[in-house]
Write a structure and sequence with these properties.
Number of strands: 0
Helix content: over 70%
Structural class: mainly alpha
Number of helices: 4
Order of helices and strands: HHHH
Strand content: under 5%
Number of domains: 1
Shape: flat
Largest sheet: none
Distance between the termini: 14 Å
Length: 105
C-alpha cells in the first residue's frame, strides 16, 4: 500500500509542478489554490509512505516520478523539446526509479 500511495503522491507532484506554470507567480487565484492543495496533498502522501518505506528510496522515487511526469507534460502541453537525447535521459530516470523500487527492502 505504501508504494501505491507513493506513486500517487508522485503523480500529484507532477500536477502541482505543472500548476506552477498556470499560477503566473501565484498571481492567479484558482490555479494558485489548486497548486497549493496539490503541494500539501503530495507531501502528506509522501510522509505516509515513509512510515514503512526507506526515506532515501521514497524521496528519490517521489521526485523522479514528479520530474519525469513534468517533462512528459511539458512536451505534451507546452511544446517543449522532445529531442532524442532528452528522451534518452528521461528513460535513464525511469530506469533509476524502477531500480530503486526493485532494490528497496
Amino acid at each position: 500500500m505504501a508504494w501505491l500511495i507513493l506513486v500517487i503522491a508522485g503523480l500529484i507532484e507532477t500536477g502541482w509542478a505543472i500548476g506552477l506554470k498556470y499560477t503566473d507567480g501565484f498571481t492567479r487565484f484558482w490555479p494558485s489554490v489548486f497548486t497549493i492543495i496539490g503541494i500539501v496533498t503530495s507531501l502528506v502522501m509522501l510522509s505516509m509512505s515513509v512510515r514503512t518505506l526507506p526515506i532515501g528510496t521514497a524521496y528519490a522515487v517521489w521526485v523522479g516520478i514528479g520530474a519525469a511526469g513534468t517533462v512528459v507534460c511539458g512536451i505534451l502541453l507546452f511544446g517543449e523539446s522532445a529531442s532524442l537525447v532528452r528522451l534518452g535521459f528521461l528513460s535513464l530516470l525511469l530506469i533509476s526509479i524502477i531500480g530503486l523500487k526493485m532494490t528497496a527492502h
